[in-house]
Amino acid sequence: MSFSLSAYLAEATGDSKYTNAAMLSATWMRNHNLNSNNIALDTESGADCSRSPSTWIFTYNSGKFIEGLSVLFDVTKDPQWNQLSVHLHSIKLPIQAS
């Protein structure tokens, strides 16, 4: 997930271009790529903006989003990123038996 990379680059370099990229990515994820249960979705096609079905749940997507939010909050000190991270931590992720 490029969002986490932008957040880490912002943290490592202090360069506002990475901070801005991370904030834009986090905002997009929050507004467009969470399902109705606030679980991060897997894929969006750049060709036609179609998304993977909301039933395709891969918990690592939510984990990487939370990770990036934590770093972004550390960089910006903007409470909205911490609040979203805490909210996403509280969500029960489905566990599928193999």
Q: Which spans of ≥5 residues are poorly predicted at pLDDT below 50?
A: none
Global shape:
globular
Report strand %. Answer: under 5%
Strand tally:
0
pLDDT averaged over residues: 87
Helix content: 55-70%
Number of domains: 1
Described by strand count, sense and barrel closure, the largest sheet is: none
Computed structural class: mainly alpha
The string of secondary-structure elements, in order, is HHHH
Distance between the termini: 25 Å
Q: In DSSP terms, counting alpha (H) and pi (I) runs of 4 or more, how many helices? A: 4
Key features of this structure:
98 residues, 4 helices, mainly alpha, single chain, 59% helix
Describe the protein's architecture and organization.
The chain is mostly helical and 98 residues long. It has one domain (2-89). The chain contains 4 helices and no strands. It has helices at residues 2-13, 16-32, 59-76, 79-89. The radius of gyration is 14 Å and the shape is globular.
